[in-house]
Amino acid sequence: MPSERITSYRRAGLTFDVSDSGPSGGPAVVLLHGFPSHRGCWDAVTPILNAAGLRTLAPNQRGYAARAKALRRQDYRAAEVTADAIALLDAAHLQRVHLVGHDWGGFVAWRLAASAPERISGITVLSTPHPSALVRSFFSSNQALRCALNWYRGMWLPERRRDNRNEIRRNEIRVPTTYLWGKRDQALGPRAAELTARYVKGPYRFIALDENHWLPELAAQRVAQEIVADIEGLR
Asked: At the fourth CATH level, which superfamily is domain 8-159+169-234?
């Protein structure tokens, strides 16, 4: 089924607004924002990607718009927010996309690359280390978690019981991956960034920029440049 333009989609009783721009037939890029931003954080990035022939879809994630406000803590579990992203692909009739995520959007990108690699051609993650690297870094640095509304509380809720012996294998990333990290990031320190490579088994690039946490806004040109390079590398 061919892809189609969308301005919103529904899942689990919520309506998610989407900015869908660029050539309809171009390779599709999904852009996931983090806290406390919204889809507008990509406004300086998308025109550059569109000019390079890429179609961009930037949704407001759950909790960030009036029609997508889930109220319960459990509604922000990792399984829920990643299912939102898959629902976007289904609504737009896109079988595979390049996924870009910043902050908690980066968490979703890591999660989907591990759990649904058949839908992801590659990922570009901004600021956010691999979740397992972040947890591991707590034992070797003084970095602390930031507190922020339901995403920050709900992401860590336990899901169904798992076989811990297979947990590392489940978390391994095998799709092509680029990780951009700001050396002046006040929230996410170097130890987790360094450890991230352990969890990527596919092609991997790590790029340290002389910026702080807000890469989509402050380094839009460089971010877009690296996304384009990622996609051109897959052609």
From this structure: Alpha/Beta hydrolase fold, catalytic domain (3.40.50.1820)
Q: How many angstroms separate the first and last alpha carbons of the chain?
A: 21
The distance from CA 188 to its chain's CA centroid, rounded to whole angstroms, is 15
Q: Bigger pLDDT: 47 or 73? A: 47
Per domain, the residue ranges of the chain are 8-159+169-234
d(CA 100, CA 121): 11
Question: Which 3 state secondary structure label does DSSP give 79?
Answer: helix
Residue 170 CA: distances (Å) to CA of 26, 155, 205, 224: 31, 17, 21, 29
SS3 21: strand
Do 38 and 60 touch, CB atoms closer than 8 A?
yes
Categorize the per-residue pLDDT at 217 as very low, low, confident or very high, splitting at 50, 70 and 90. Answer: very high
pLDDT per residue over 37-66, tens digit each?
Answer: 999 999 999 999 999 999 999 999 988 777
Pairing mode of beta strands 14-21, 55-59: antiparallel
Closest CA to 62 of 87, 43, 42, 41: 87
Q: In degrees, to the nearest 5, what angle opens at C-alpha 141 toward C-alphas 213 and 145?
A: 50
